[in-house]
Write a structure and sequence with these properties.
The protein is mostly helical. 70% of the residues lie in helices and 0% in strands. Among the domains are: 118 residues, no CATH class; 95 residues, Serine Threonine Protein Phosphatase 5, Tetratricopeptide repeat. The protein contains 20 helices and no strands. It is flat and about 85 Å long.
Length: 342
Amino acid sequence: MPRWLSEGISVYEERQANPAWGQSMNPKFREMTLGDDLTPVSKLSGAFLSPKTPGHLSFAYYESSLVVEYIVKRFGLDALRKILGDLGSGVEINATIAKHTEPMNKLEPAFATFAKARAEGLAPKLDWTKPKPRDLKAGVEAFAKKHPKNIYLLQRRARKALTEKKWEDAKAPCRELIELFPNQTGGDSAYLMLAKAHRKLKEVKEERKVLDQFVVLTDDAFDVYLRLMKLASDAKDWSALRTHAERALAVNPLIAVPYRHLAEAAEALKQTDAAIGAWKTVLKLDPRDPAEAHYRLARLLHSKDDPSAKRHLLMALEEAPRFREAHRMLLEINGALKEPRE
């Protein structure tokens, strides 16, 4: 099986499971699709073997998934299965595609039309005219007057306001971008710029609302998950805290912070076993404050009459000898206090 078909099926299946998982049309892919970067189906293997740039390789993954989607939509899933069956028998890729779909001289222009329609369907209410140097030299305002909904100028206005720390001024272009292009992702997303403006203005509820809208569109916004965990923890929204912690762990399961928040949420939700498991994982990942982790774990274990609670208390005290709460619990476990700690 050629790499492009294998990867194309993978990305296509990701989108079928969850639109946020697989690659989707974005401004860069739109530009490449409508420009000269769409590779003919018969030559897609070359897009992986010798891409011009890393960006072209990323686009090759996306275009391959579109080819798979096009074949399934137009010729049915069974056609794709037959292509795979032929490949297993040693049939050449272009020959078997033509056999179970249509000749390449018909398939390729039909697919190109399909791909370009997908590109043109991205935020169709936005003006995608790219300003040329002479346009900007003549004056940004004159260009903006002719193109009031231009994506590049709206982004420029938002970034300029943020750079100049004019937080309130950044809101309008960001909101317009979101209204006209609600599915935008990536590090330059208007959602993230608007969230920054809210954060600088200490508008916590508004920031959280915008970030919540953003994270359902993507599957790898780790820094955003961290910020949302902090906001959810501050608001004592334990269900949301658990959700964001799980999202972060899906991206990187080897960092202690999400497990700590997961433990915090589980404790608050009275999910003792889940909290114990999360704190144990925190301790395996070299946390910044092992004394607290040992103490919190000991407290949970003690509530279940687990004798290992004492060991974790002693380990907490080994890290922080003046940890008064740990000393108090150790006295409770040893029976030195008549009244248990509340």
